[in-house]
């Protein structure tokens, strides 16, 4: 499991904005992932994503990494923001766009 957690740590560190989701932003495989990706796209920010359905180790590991039991999960500047409900709430009140504006550009 430590190898998986190291891979996740590297992904989170290397990508200022990264969404762990089911499917891809173009082809989301669940409604929560779709709404989370749409909120990020609406903010006009580039973001990386990991399709957890393609990697069962990451799918389980990400839940341990951030101590967050559900997907999707958004990380900005290496910090867990939260899941779909939090992402949408932040989008609706304008906080998400402000947070994304602080994302470090590589």
Structure description:
With 106 residues, the protein is α+β, with helices and mostly antiparallel strands. It is built from five helices and four strands, in the order αβαβαββαα.
The name of the CATH topology is Glutaredoxin
Biggest sheet: strand arrangement = 2-1-3-4
N/C terminus separation: 28 Å
Fraction of residues in helix: 40-55%
Per CATH, the superfamily is Glutaredoxin
Which percent range describes the beta-strand content?
15-25%
CATH class: Alpha Beta
Q: Could you give a quick summary of the protein structure above?
A:
The chain has 106 residues and is of the alpha+beta class.
Task: Lay out the secondary structure.
Layout: H1 2-14, E1 17-21, H2 31-42, E2 48-51, H3 56-65, E3 73-76, E4 79-82, H4 84-92, H5 95-101
Parallel strand pairs: 1-2
Antiparallel strand pairs: 1-3, 3-4
Helix pairs in contact: 1-3, 2-4
Throw out a few tags for this protein.
single chain; 106 residues; alpha+beta; Glutaredoxin; 5 helices; globular
């Amino acid at each position: 499991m430590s190898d998986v957690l190291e891979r996740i740590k590297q992904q989170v560190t290397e990508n200022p904005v990264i969404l762990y989701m089911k499917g891809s932003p173009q082809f989301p495989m669940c409604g929560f992932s779709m709404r989370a990706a749409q909120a990020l796209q609406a903010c006009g920010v580039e973001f990386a994503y990991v399709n957890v359905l393609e990697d069962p180790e990451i799918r389980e590991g990400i839940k341990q990494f951030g101590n967050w039991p559900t997907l999707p999960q958004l990380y900005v500047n290496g910090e867990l923001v939260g899941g779909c409900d939090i992402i949408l709430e932040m989008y609706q009140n304008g906080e998400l766009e402000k947070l994304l504006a602080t994302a470090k550009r590589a």
